[in-house]
Amino acid sequence: MRIATKTALAFAAFAALCVGGSGLLLIDEFEDGLFEALRDRQRLLVSNRALVLRENLALASGEIERVAAMAEIDLEDEDLGPEQRLMAQAYQQTSFFNRQMELYGAHGRCRWAEPHDGGRVGVDASREAWFIAASRAPYETRVYTEGTDEGGLVDLVTPVTRDGRVVGVLRGVVDLHGDLMFSPALHDDLQPSTRVALLTDSGRAMLRSEGPEIAPAERAVALRALSTDQAGAVVMDVDGEPRVVAWAPVGRADLGLVFSWPLHELDESAERHLRSLTLSMSVVGALALLTGFVVARLLTGPLQRLAAQVRGVHTRSLERLPRTERRDEIGDVQRALRALLEMLDAREVEITEDRDRIAELATQLEERVEERTAELREAQDALVQAERLAAIGRAGTVLGHEIRNTLNAVSVAMDTLGTDADRDEHETARRLVRGEITRMRKLSDELIDYAREPALERVMTPVADLFEIAGLLVEDHAREHGVQVELDLEGEPRASVDPDRMHTALVNLLRNAVDAAAGGAAPRVRATARSDDGRVRILVDDTGAGVAESIRERLFQPFVTSRRQGLGLGLAIADRLVRAHGGTIELDASPLGGARFVVTIPVEDPAAHLAAEEAT
Question: Is the peptide bond prior to 115 cis by the omega test (within 30 degrees of 0)?
Answer without folding.
Answer: yes
